[in-house]
């Protein structure tokens, strides 16, 4: 990714802490030593070479923007860490305690590139791509330990999943999650009226680093997926999914962006409850080898972990009416 030279120069002056047009600076001044320390703190080995500081920082930012990104059309994770370190609330300057003035100055520069910086509930600064509304964050590990705030948000999400409908699960949870994970053209395929569904509730596509596209169909069930002979209320039997998966993989979908019919490359089977190991094994045995490799599973734990570590806002109905019950923390 490339930013305009003017944008890079403005960002460089913020990192250096140089006043803008002889006006008050809301960013701390950094000498050569502290510039090297700054870029070391974001896990890079860039060291200031004694040249003019703003020019060197601008060139360094340009190199960082060339680093690979985990999300298409977004800057690299390193650039995200640069912004977060620059905007730490623990480092206010010139009585800008909440960094409001610093944030305004940063967004003046970033708006030229269709990005916006904002503070989330964790008081860290993130970047949002304005046209797509995707948020740039460092790679999120869904298996890491959760913070106390994340644990409370997780409890709220579990309660929501216990009571929501299948349509709510798709529209309020899965669509925002897949959008944040970098999927494109996320389309709900006639789930409410069952028209032209052909075994899938959602179809979407994902761009590989090579600029090739992969297409995904998604079959969603609200409850548990099992392989028992008799299905209990609220659960679904994996045998019910079998024919839907075959339809999903065999039926073409129309991609209006390229004007062609394409086949689904992979099928997601997603459950708002548990997907038992026996159910996965049953489906694997029922499909031939070529189709078996196209199946991906995601159950409740996967959904919750991904939703929380990506810091997505909870559905409105999941947020308690009295936030003080949760120590007044924002959700």
Question: What distinguishing features does this structure have?
Answer:
five-stranded mixed β-sheet; 2 domains; 331 residues; alpha/beta; Restriction Endonuclease
Short structural description:
With 331 residues, the protein is an alpha/beta fold. α6 crosses α11 (300-309) and α8 (238-250) packs across α9. The protein has helices spanning 5-16, 32-41, 53-65, 77-86, 100-110, 148-163, 166-180, 238-250, 277-286, 289-292, 300-309, and strands at residues 115-119, 125-129, 134-136, 184-188, 202-207, 213-221, 225-226, 236-237, 253-255, 260-262, 266-271, 295-298.
Number of extended strands? 12
How many distinct domains? 2
> Could you spell the SSE succession in H and E letters?
HHHHHEEEHHEEEEEHEEEHHEH
What is the count of helical runs? 11
Principal-axes geometry comes out as elongated
Just name the CATH architecture of the largest domain: 3-Layer(aba) Sandwich
* Beta-strand percentage range: 15-25%
Strand order of the largest sheet: 4-5-6-11-12
Rg (C-alpha, Å): 23 Å
CATH fold field value of the largest domain: Restriction Endonuclease
Protein name: Restriction endonuclease
Describe the protein's architecture and organization:
The chain is α/β, with parallel strands linked by helices. The chain folds into 2 domains: 132 residues, no CATH class; 171 residues, Restriction Endonuclease. Helix content is 37%, strand content 16%. The chain contains 11 helices and 12 strands. The chain has a 5-stranded mixed β-sheet, with helices on both faces. A hairpin with a 5-residue loop joins β1 and β2. α6 packs across α11. It is elongated. The two termini are 32 Å apart. The relative contact order is 0.10.
């Amino acid at each position: 990714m490339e930013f305009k030279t003017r944008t890079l120069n403005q960002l460089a002056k913020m990192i250096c802490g140089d006043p803008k047009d002889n006006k008050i600076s809301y960013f701390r001044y950094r000498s050569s030593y502290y510039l090297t320390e700054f870029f070391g703190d974001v896990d890079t080995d860039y060291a200031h070479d004694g040249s003019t500081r703003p020019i060197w920082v601008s060139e360094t930012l340009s190199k960082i923007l060339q680093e690979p990104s985990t999300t298409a059309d977004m800057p690299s994770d390193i650039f995200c860490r640069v912004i977060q370190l620059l905007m730490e609330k623990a480092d206010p300057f010139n009585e800008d305690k909440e960094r409001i003035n610093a944030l305004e100055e940063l967004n003046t520069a970033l708006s030229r590139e269709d990005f916006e910086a904002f503070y989330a509930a964790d008081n860290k600064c993130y970047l949002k791509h304005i046209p797509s509304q995707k948020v740039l964050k460092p790679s999120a590990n869904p298996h890491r330990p959760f913070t106390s705030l994340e644990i409370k948000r997780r409890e709220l999400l579990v309660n929501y999943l216990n009571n929501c409908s299948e349509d709510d699960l798709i529209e309020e949870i899965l669509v925002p999650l897949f959008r944040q994970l970098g999927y494109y053209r996320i389309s709900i395929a006639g789930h409410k009226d069952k028209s032209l569904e052909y075994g899938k509730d959602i179809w979407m596509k994902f761009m590989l680093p090579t600029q090739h596209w992969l297409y995904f169909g998604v079959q969603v069930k609200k409850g548990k997926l099992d392989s028992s002979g008799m299905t209990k209320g609220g659960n679904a039997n994996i045998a019910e999914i079998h024919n839907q998966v075959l339809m999903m993989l065999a039926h073409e979908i129309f991609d209006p962006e390229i004007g062609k019919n394409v086949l689904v490359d992979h099928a997601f089977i997603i459950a708002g409850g548990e997907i038992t190991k026996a159910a996965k094994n049953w489906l694997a045995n029922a499909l031939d080898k070529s189709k078996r490799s196209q199946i991906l599973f995601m159950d409740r734990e996967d959904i919750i972990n991904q939703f929380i570590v990506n810091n997505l806002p909870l559905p409105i109905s999941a947020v308690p009416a009295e936030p003080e019950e949760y120590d007044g923390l924002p959700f």
